[in-house]
Amino acid sequence: MVNIFYRSARFLPERAAGEGLLPWVIGVMIFLCTLSFSLTSSLGAGLEKWSESLTNSLAIQIVTENEAERDSQTDAVMRMLEATPGIKGVSVAAQSDVLALLAPWLGDIPIGSGLPLPTLIDVELEDGNALNIEALRERLKATAPNASVDDHQEWMNRIIEFAAVLRIALTGVMFMVILSTIAIVIFGCRTSLATHRESIEIMHLIGAEDSMIARAFMDRYLVHGLLGGVGGVLLAGGLLLLLANIAEDIGQGLISASVPDLSIIGWLILIPLISGTLTMTTAFVTVRRALSKML
Amino acid sequence: MIRFENVGMRYGMGSEVLKDISFTLERGSFHFLVGPSGAGKTSLLKLLYLAHRPSRGLIHYFGNDTTEMSRLELPKIRRRIGVVFQDFRLFDHLTAFENVAMPLQINGAKKAQVAGHVEELLEWVGLKDRMHAKPPTLSGGEKQRVAIARAVINKPDLLVADEPTGNVDPEIAKRLIHLFSELNKTGTTTVVATHDESIVEAVGAPVLHLNKGELEKQRGFKYQPYDKAVHAAQGTIDGPAEQSRRAAILQGGKQDG
């Protein structure tokens, strides 16, 4: 261990029993913390991206058993939509596509089997549209009484709710890991204080102030925190890159939208510094508190 | 300059190990502290070097009442006290040089000043050629001298030594007492706890005699220059030129040669 600053008296031996493991334990904690942090932030960003892409489209469904009625309502709706500003494109789904959507529930049904099928109209909205869905619903009701609008909101809400719970859980994990790291540092410090009690006593008797003694521990724990932080972040960074590659290969919906955003890797550089500061501050508070109970 | 008034001391809730201790140590005086095992010598020394608080009574150091002092104020008094522990209590992972330098470093001395001063002092105790050795490789006498050098490097106002001659042969013991006498001549009040009656008799300095936690008698308890007695007891180890050179080192000046 280096004596980082001349300011810290080297009264602690360079290698203390058990302390060698500390950077490893801190490293594991930082790895878990970095993963939780990255997944939390990319889940949020991914969800936003994904819901943005879904709000650019909506579906209109016309359900009636009367085929002539359905076709006339379809024509009326198409005309109305084409005249509505903010709509980029409109298309009626082919019967084969509708049957494919129903296949999981009804099995394979041939076209022309006499089964009354709904008409599905796929509406693509212009970017940054300000289409009032409620107003559209009202106008649709007037144009085609059997038409309804599905703007994906209902099931989007469920996913958003799930993602919010997941984010809370991950944030909870992150805080628990941080608290565990603090607890480990406190435990390590107390063990060091007990191991070096005699040296501390000598330092006091030759006139050292508490701050001098605490600085020696602070410097040591700063190094433990930095080393653990760098190790943990490297490991987590590697895993995130791997996940990003796999997700890119899958390239589907929420998965691809939620892959760790590589721009956060820049922020990961800060984590060892935060880890070092955390371990150093914890050591400082623990040691000062213990020293205040000595003469 | 150091005054104990009706001082009592106990460990935890135990009975008093020191009772009604009262004495005054004048500046530049030299005293022996004697008494049988269990008499309370170590406890009295702990009070002297501020490792323990009295359970009652008053202790004045250099005009300050330390019994009322907060622990945050103690370091500045402790820096004026040099302690030679019976078991040396050196830092085993540091070299002799680094051990001796520690009080200077604590006192905020600059790195360049530390080097020169420590080397001079190690030369004074005859360990210049061993200054890069670590305590586990030093003999008992050498460790003792490192401990003494560490205790005196800040030119303390009070030097407390616990059985400094207990672990060394008679020749080294004489030499150590001689070192203390040289330091004492520079104005440092010195208290040496010892079992060695022959040294006490030979030196003839005032004696604090402890028995069952009480000061029994204070033989010749009046400050007297005693270096003459020391030299008579041990024979002259060094010539006058060497002695004045060492005195100059202790006072922080350069040696003459």
Automatic annotation (TrEMBL), chain B:
InterPro entries: AAA+_ATPase, ABC_transporter-like_ATP-bd, ABC_transporter-like_CS, ABC_transpr_LolD-like, Cell_div_FtsE, MacB-like_ATP-bd, P-loop_NTPase. Its main location: membrane. It comes from the Bacteria. It is a peripheral membrane protein. Keywords: ATP-binding, Cell cycle, Cell division, Cell membrane, Membrane, Nucleotide-binding, Transport. GO terms for cellular component: plasma membrane. It is found in: Cell inner membrane; Cell membrane. One of its GO terms (molecular function) is transmembrane transporter activity. Residues 2-237 form the ABC transporter domain. GO terms for biological process: cell division. CDD domains: ABC_MJ0796_LolCDE_FtsE. Gene3D superfamilies: P-loop containing nucleotide triphosphate hydrolases. PANTHER family: CELL DIVISION ATP-BINDING PROTEIN FTSE, IMPORT ATP-BINDING PROTEIN. Homodimer. Forms a membrane-associated complex with FtsX. Belongs to the ABC transporter superfamily. Part of the ABC transporter FtsEX involved in cellular division. Important for assembly or stability of the septal ring. NCBIfam families: FtsE. This is Cell division ATP-binding protein FtsE. It comes from Kordiimonas sediminis.
